[in-house]
Amino acid sequence: MSYAVGCVPYLNAKPLVWSFAGEDSPVRVQFDVPSRLPKLLDDGQVQAILVSSIEALRRPRVADGVSISSFGEVLSVRLFSRVPFEQIRTLALDQSSMTSNALAQILLAEQHGCQPNTTALPPELATMLDTADAGVLIGDAGMRADGTGLHVMDLGAAWTELTGLPFVWALWVGGDGLDETLAGHLADAAPRALANLDTLLPTFAAESGFSEPLAHRYFTEVMDYEFGEAHREGLAAYAERLLKHGLVQEATIPQIVGNASLAR
Fold first, then answer.
1. What percent of the residues of the chain are helix, what percent strand, and what percent coil, each to the nearest 5?
2. How far is C-alpha 163 from the chain's CA centre?
3. Rounded CA separation 244/104 (Å)
4. How do the domains of the chain map onto residue ranges?
5. Cα(95)–Cα(178) distance, integer angstroms
6. CATH class for domain 77-163?
7. 133, 167, 196, 215: which has the fewest Cβ within 10 Å?
8. pTM of the model
9. Mean pLDDT calculated for residue range 229-249
10. What confidence category does residue 264 fall into, taking pLDDT thresholds of 50, 70 and 90?
11. CA pair distance 176, 62, nearest whole angstrom
C-alpha cells in the first residue's frame, strides 16, 4: 500500500522525509507551507501531515516514535528584546508559528512575570522591534537573526530550564489514514537519514543556506527526532500550560499510533 504525507520544506524536517525520495518509496511527500498542510489532510489528499504541536493537540492521531523536538537549546526559535525580559510590554509574534508564539508567552509569564500585549507580524526582526519591545522568530529566520545588543531567549533552552523536559515542536498527525504501517515508515525515516548524515550534509546545508558545520551541529547536537516517554511528558506539560494561560480553549493528547517507542 502506498501513502501520501504533507511536510514543511524546512531544514529540520529534511531527515524525516529524505528516505521517501525514491520512485519505489511507499510514501510520497507533498511539500507546502504550514498553513496549507491541514487542508491537504482534511481534503484526503494525504494521510498524515507534519505540524506544530499546538495543531497536533487538536488532531486525533500522532505517529509514535518520531517528532521534531529539542532538549535544551534549539537555536531556531528565539525571542529578541530591546529591554530586559521582565520589562517587555509589547511582543511581536511570528505569523508562521502558533506553537512558538504561545510558548514565548508561557515562558515570559512563568519565568519573568510579564504578560505583554501581542501583535502578529511578518518575520523580520527590524520591523518587529520598530513596532514592539520584543519579537519571536522561528526557523531559518530565527537562526540567522543577529541578536547583538539585544536580550535573546532561546525558547528551547528556557523551556527545559523551566520543566526539565524536552519540548516537542512538531509531530506527524492524521486521522484514520494514519495506520500502524504508515507510522512505522515515518518513525524509521529519521534514523536512516542520520545514519547517512555525512553523505547528506552538503546537500542539506546547501539547500538551507547554512554552513556545513552549523548544519552538522544542528542535526547531531540540537535536534531530537524521537518521541518517547519524556517527549510525551513534555507535550502534556505544554498542553497543561496552554490551558492554564488561556492560550487555547481545548488541548487533548492524541492517540499514539504504532509501537516505535517500545521497540527502541
1. 45, 20, 30
2. 18
3. 14
4. 3-68+167-263, 77-163
5. 28
6. alpha beta
7. 196
8. 0.93
9. 97
10. very low
11. 11
Burial of 262 (0-12, 13-18, 19+ CB in 10 A): exposed
**What is the residue whose three cell numbers read 539547500?**
207
pLDDT higher than 90, residue 15: yes
- As a whole number of angstroms, the distance between CA 66 and CA 260 comes to 8
Residues 6+ apart with CB under 8 A from 22: none
- Rounded CA-CA distance 59/251 in Å is 9
Q: How far apart are CA 105 and CA 50, in angstroms?
A: 23
Query: Around Cβ 126, how many Cβ atoms within 10 Å?
Result: 9
Judging by beta carbons within 10 Å of its beta carbon (0-12, 13-18, 19+), is residue 100 exposed, middle or buried? buried
Report the distance separating Cα 113 and Cα 106, nearest Å: 10
Please choose, from the candidates 90, 171, 180, the residue with its C-alpha nearest in 3D space to the C-alpha of residue 136. Answer: 90
Helix 98-112 and helix 155-163: axis angle, to 10°? 50
- What CATH architecture does domain 3-68+167-263 belong to? 3-Layer(aba) Sandwich (3.40)
Rg from Cα positions in the chain:
18
Q: What is the mean pLDDT of the chain?
A: 93
Share of the chain above pLDDT 70, in %: 98
Amino acid letter, 34: P
Spatial separation of the C-alpha atoms in residues 253 and 264, rounded to whole Å? 22
